[in-house]
DNA sequence: AAATGAGGCAACCGCAGTTTC
DNA sequence: AGAAACTGCGGTTGCCTCATT
């Protein structure tokens, strides 16, 4: 495709000068500075304008996957992992589409996560990662485990909150904060494909009737009715009873509310009963990342359970 | 201490769709 | 209108780091 458009130099000349491989700090600075002044877009022109000996593609990739200010760093949170699993089960390898629902995460990062973590586990278990069997396992075992992790983290954080309140001698004023009587028990017999949580001590009890479908727009999560409705296949799998104070999303709000990402639903404090209203979450931004948690989706318990699952032939 | 292997991730490639001239 | 350039996406590669032998 030889250009009709004006070129500063011929493609061959240009190509011979092009740099490849890892970006240097100087290149990063040049790119960031140029984009700060002139904005994104027209990447080939931008590359030349910034004085970078890189292709426009390379600049775009570097910016979108690494330099852009709102990019999140660090391990994926259990919530994010859960969302990835759910959305992947729905859309497959549509990484950019999935990434749109995880603010600050890039398609590349999600793709890498899937390939290094999820596919690896599937390989080790001799299951095709895109098979229905694997999908069932993910939905029946690993998603609940993640939810459990999320709730446990929530529980810990609420304890921490209470402790810190106590330290400040104001605990008595916050007696309305719910305290879990017990952690949820995962009751998930191998023969069942459904997920059940129970927390006998909790008065709050909900039913999950649809996938944990959350969509994001900027920094908010909003339920997207169409997407949920177009995915009836997910509902039966997740139409399970969940007790306790935790549910990720589910019944979309017919009034069309949206939720703050920071409020992404690990419902703990102040949760009412489920009455088809959107569930809200009291997890503050600082708790969104569970540093102490394993960054991997699977742990040894998961593996043990899954081997059990294999034997039972799901 | 050196060699080896695995994991993680940034970057590249090829293709398809869109935009620009 | 059509060719060229641009953009975005998904798949793949290769390099770096760290753990293990």
Q: Can you put this structure into words, describing what you see?
A:
The protein is mainly α and 314 residues long. It has 2 domains: 57 residues, Homeodomain-like (Arc Repressor Mutant, subunit A, Orthogonal Bundle), CATH 1.10.10; 235 residues, no CATH class. The strands form 3 sheets. A 3-stranded antiparallel beta sheet has the order 4-5-7, with no helix packed on it. It has a two-stranded antiparallel sheet with strand order 1-2. A two-stranded antiparallel sheet has the order 3-6. The longest helix is centred in the middle third of the chain and has 36 residues. The protein is elongated and about 50 Å long. The N terminus is likely disordered. The chain binds a DNA duplex (21 and 21 nucleotides) through helix 3, helix 4, helix 6 and helix 7.
Topology:
Layout: H1 11-17, H2 25-38, H3 43-49, H4 56-67, H5 78-91, H6 95-99, H7 107-124, H8 132-167, E1 185-186, E2 197-198, E3 205-207, E4 215-217, E5 220-222, H9 225-229, H10 234-238, E6 241-243, E7 258-260, H11 300-312
Antiparallel strand pairs: 1-2, 3-6, 4-5, 5-7
Helix pairs in contact: 3-4, 5-8, 8-11
The chain binds a DNA duplex (21 and 21 nucleotides) through residues 1-5, 20-23, 41-45, 55-58, 60-62, 64-66, 93-97, 107-109, 111-113, 115-116, 120.
């Amino acid at each position: 495709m030889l250009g009709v458009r004006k070129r500063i130099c011929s493609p061959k000349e240009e190509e011979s000068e092009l740099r490849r491989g890892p970006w240097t700090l100087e290149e990063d600075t040049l790119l960031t500075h140029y984009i700060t002044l002139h904005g994104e877009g027209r990447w080939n022109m931008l590359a030349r304008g910034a004085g970078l000996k890189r292709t426009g593609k390379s600049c775009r990739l570097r910016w979108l996957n690494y330099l852009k200010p709102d990019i999140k760093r660090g391990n994926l949170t259990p919530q994010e992992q859960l969302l990835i699993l759910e959305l992947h089960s729905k859309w497959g390898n549509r990484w950019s589409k999935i990434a749109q629902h995880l603010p600050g995460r890039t398609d590349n990062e999600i793709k890498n996560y899937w390939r290094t973590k999820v596919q690896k586990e599937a390989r080790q278990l001799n299951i095709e990662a895109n098979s229905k069997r694997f999908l069932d396992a993910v939905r029946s075992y690993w998603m609940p485990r993640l939810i459990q992790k999320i709730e446990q983290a929530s529980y810990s954080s609420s304890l921490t909150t209470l402790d810190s309140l106590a330290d400040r001698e104001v605990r008595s004023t916050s007696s309305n904060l719910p305290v879990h009587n017990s952690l949820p028990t995962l009751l998930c017999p191998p023969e069942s494909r459904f997920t059940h949580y129970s927390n006998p001590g909790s008065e709050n009890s909900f039913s999950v009737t649809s996938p944990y479908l959350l969509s994001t727009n900027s920094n908010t999560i909003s339920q997207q009715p169409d997407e949920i409705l177009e995915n009836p296949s997910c509902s039966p799998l997740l139409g399970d009873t969940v007790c306790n104070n935790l549910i990720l999303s589910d019944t979309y709000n017919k009034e069309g509310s949206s939720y703050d990402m920071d409020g992404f639903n690990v419902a703990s404090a102040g949760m009412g009963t489920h009455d088809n209203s959107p569930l809200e979450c009291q997890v503050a931004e600082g708790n969104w990342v569970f540093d102490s948690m394993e960054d991997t989706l699977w742990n040894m318990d998961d593996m043990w359970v899954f081997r059990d699952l294999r034997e039972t032939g799901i």
